[in-house]
Amino acid sequence: MINKIVQSIAEAMAGIQDGSTVLIAGFGAVGQPNALIEGLIEQGARDLVAVANNAGVGHEGLARLMELGRVRKIICSFPRSSDPVVFEGLYRAGKIELEIVPQGTLAERMHAAGAGIPAFFTATAVGTLLAQGKEAREFDGKQYVMEKAIHGDVALVEAWEADRWGNLTYKQSGRNFNPIMAMAGKLTIVQSQHIVELGDIEPENVHTPGIFVDRVLHVPYGDPSGF
Amino acid sequence: MINKIVQSIAEAMAGIQDGSTVLIAGFGAVGQPNALIEGLIEQGARDLVAVANNAGVGHEGLARLMELGRVRKIICSFPRSSDPVVFEGLYRAGKIELEIVPQGTLAERMHAAGAGIPAFFTATAVGTLLAQGKEAREFDGKQYVMEKAIHGDVALVEAWEADRWGNLTYKQSGRNFNPIMAMAGKLTIVQSQHIVELGDIEPENVHTPGIFVDRVLHVPYGDPSGF
Amino acid sequence: MADTTVAPSKAEDFKPLSRTQMAARAAQDIPEGWYVNLGIGIPTLISDHVPMDREVILHSENGILGMGPLAPKDAIEPWLVNAGKQYVTLRKGGSYCHHADSFAMIRGGHIDLCVLGGFQVAENGDLANWATSENDTAPAVGGAMDLAAGAKRLWVLMEHTTKDGTSKIVRRCSYPLTAVGATRRVYTNLATLDISPSGFVVVDMAPGLTFENLQARTDAPLRMAG
Amino acid sequence: MADTTVAPSKAEDFKPLSRTQMAARAAQDIPEGWYVNLGIGIPTLISDHVPMDREVILHSENGILGMGPLAPKDAIEPWLVNAGKQYVTLRKGGSYCHHADSFAMIRGGHIDLCVLGGFQVAENGDLANWATSENDTAPAVGGAMDLAAGAKRLWVLMEHTTKDGTSKIVRRCSYPLTAVGATRRVYTNLATLDISPSGFVVVDMAPGLTFENLQARTDAPLRMAG
Fold it and tell me: Between chains, do B1 and C92 touch, taking CB under 8 Å as contact?
């Protein structure tokens, strides 16, 4: 019997190597796998490349991971936040690398990785600083730049429901980066508010099919703002 | 009030120009918009490029459209069928152009069009006849070919449920090419088994959001095998 | 770079539009049926000025189509935020999708209109709205470049000048660009300006403002419509 | 092109596997938990030989994950067909998706195993299974090239020879290729062959068949495992 449900945070995070690229889902606090980020802090892997939309808030979660010197580089679209103190300090001190990627390009680079597409062209960022050093090309009279896939060694995902095959649903705008990071991660680890029986999720309405999921941990944590 | 629901097949098909590229969804008979194909036969546009997975069966639907000399070129993955007599006759007589595209590449070329990506790389077909004349390129030591987006002037789609904003659901494997052709069509026309009230489809479970849909015709036609 | 500081006119016999008035002015021009993404800041206010019976479908790049007004404090849905991370609501007929699908709507040209804030708009349609220097520490781009390059139309909603009176309507942007030649129209607190192949065209002005006064506050040359 | 016709052995003291036996043989090697796409034809039969309590998740490229057995005649779901357009069922835990997502599973390397039929397999792993000549009238490729290039592992399940005795296990494919160097293992009615960097390795043979007899029926050179 296939059973992707694990019983502890240690089991969920086991085996993450130093030097890994870790995809961290969520848009602000919504859809962010807080328990797994805490688990990663606990687990100890270092020299990480973190891929996330934001670069952490306050001194918790991703910000804490950075503060501990565990993140070598961050790839994100929006390093600013209401309280980006940790990131800004490290960045000014030259202790963290930053790759700024337009949000849609960031999403598509991971979607491409999940879909086996090593590179694609987009009009986003043409003629801007963020296109510098990238191959430019014209199709049908319009300019584009080439963007490459971002693969994750690990993806950390937050779901609303999960079953033992790893089928997932997401709640409202909590979906955001979760399904595409799940696709792009070699090892996709999920924290889910609810564990349901196989078949409880309508086959037409599975948001992430289990093929993209390796481990599921039950974390009924309330709501994002209450964490 | 936005209302994409039209009252007649003539209204649904109005304005399709000669020379259009028409995306026709379905995988075999399942998810195939039969009433709209009939409508296109009636409507009269000529010199069409048809994009579909198959090249028609017997003397009906797409096969009929070809038999009437209305299709200049077909782009498909699988021109064979249980009864491909019309296509094969035209093809041997040099009266129709054929572009064979691997099925996944066909799907992704339309998905790319819908997503504003003019070209992408794939390992599919590398080293085969179907890669001839295509740009080849290596990424991380592996070979790929470049494939270009396929845009539709018109997309013909079959849905299970539709509302007045054009939100759609599909039934079981009837989904197939429908959502991606809906994305890739400049004018996306839908025939739907059921018309539902706005809000009846769960917001988390809309399969094709109305932004990709222009017109919806109610066609409660039973099942694909019974057509 | 040209000195874009403009001297205030002697006889200021007009009242610049408030932020609310600017949003209301832009809202007038959005017809029913458009799919619209409103950027963070003043553009977000536009939605308050589209009457509910004129169905305009709001898109938020974090995966919402058919977004409704801000959530009342007593009915917050914790998983439902807009791109500015405010709690919002969903209209009947709205739906959710993931980030790649959401940006496919943008990049694929399915969004009829995007309205962004701006630092500078140039007469060739260039927009700068994400960084004020090439050496900015950690500039944050978010979805601005995707929206500016991908939407069918780009409008910019911003003050006409900076606080010190420097024109934000310029011949050429001095700040790093968000997108090249993308802007179609600018709504400021002083005027509505179309961008034509030959530069800025004044559509309307704040009540009481003369063309000369407007030009005096503007780096780029203007001409009247018609 | 080399003459690949092989003479039948004089003393045929063995029985080639039936199609059912071939499918059963391949099924033995599929462990629980794999995501598997079974091509049209003999490969489809494999699913009958995976016991239901060994959970193997079948993928069909027309957007089904967790496909079950063929539908009984009295319980056909008209919208539920497999890639061969047969009416099938869905297992509990199964799901549907669109064609681009379905091929993302394939192209992205998420499918652990694909089993295809073949016309020829070469000792370098090349597979030819879609056209028998460069001048084929309208050859039909379907999803074969995507599956062969994209799945984590490609196995081929086919007769060892054509009806006239020509070996389909070849030094180099003479037919147009489906994929280059992709095949890992071949199950035929005569043997199971692994493809190693140095060519075909015999894993097992039909009962009673000798290595010499097998080699006599095979264009490509073989060696025994171990």
Answer: no
Q: Which of D61, D95, D152 best probes binding to A when mutated, by most A CB atoms within 10 angstroms?
A: D95
Q: How far is A92 from chain B (nearest CA, A)?
A: 32
Does D151 reside within a domain? yes
In SS3 terms, C170-220 reads as ECCCCCCCCECCCEEEEECCCEEEEEECCEEEEEEECCCCCHHHHHHCCCC
Residue A181: inside a domain, yes or no? Answer: no
Full residue range of the structural domain in which residue A10 is found = 5-150+194-221
> Is C4 within the bounds of a domain?
no
Nearest-Cα residue of chain D relative to residue B225: D78
Q: What pLDDT sits at residue A227?
A: 47
CA–CA min distance D43, chain A (Å): 21
Of all residues in chain B, the one with the smallest CA distance to D151 is: B124
Instruction: Name residue B82's beta-bridge partners.
Output: none
The pLDDT of D114-124, averaged and rounded, is 98
Residue A179, domain member (yes or no): no
pLDDT at C138: 72
Domain-located, residue C10: no
Contact list in B for residue A139 (CB cut-off 8 A) is 118-119, 148
Q: What is the pLDDT of residue D13?
A: 80
Q: Which of C12, C32, C55, C61 is catalytic?
A: C61
d(C-alpha C102, C-alpha C100), whole Å: 5
| Residue numbers in B near A170 (CB within 8 A) | 204
Q: Do A117 and B121 touch (CB under 8 A)?
A: yes
Half-sphere exposure (CA, 13 Å, Cβ side) for C19? 8
Q: Is residue B162 part of a domain?
A: no
Looking at the structure of chain A, the number of domains it has is: 1
Contact A50, A24 (CB under 8 A): yes
The domain spanning residue C159 has which CATH number?
3.40.1080.10
Average pLDDT over residues A57-61: 91
Give the residue-averaged pLDDT of C186-191.
98
Which chain D residues are within 8 Å of A2, Cβ to Cβ? 32-33, 55, 57
Domain of residue D106 covers 19-224
Q: Count CA atoms closer than 13 A to B115's CA, side-chain side.
A: 29
Q: D107 vs A116: CB contact, 8 Å cut-off? A: yes
Q: Tell me if B123 and A112 make a contact (CB, 8 A cut-off).
A: no
Residue A105 lies in a domain: yes
Q: Does residue B10 sit at the A interface (CB-CB below 8 Å)?
A: no
Active site residue D123: no
Q: Is B61:B31 a contact under the CB 8 Å cutoff? A: no
Asked if C79's CB is within 8 angstroms of A224's CB, the reply is yes
Residue C14 is assigned to a structural domain of this protein: no
Where are any strands of DSSP class E within A13-57? 21-24, 48-51
Search chain B and give the residue with CA nearest C150: B116
The number of CA neighbours under 13 Å toward the Cβ of B92 is 7
Domain with residue B37: its CATH number is 3.40.1080.10
Q: For residues D69-93, give the mean pLDDT.
A: 95
Q: pTM, whole model, 2 decimals?
A: 0.96
Q: Rounded CA gap, B207 and D96, in Å?
A: 11
Cβ contact, residue pair A198, D109, below 8 Å: no
Cβ atoms of residues A156 and A24 within 8 Å: yes
Please state whether B28 falls in left (phi above 0), alpha (psi between -120 and 50) or beta: left
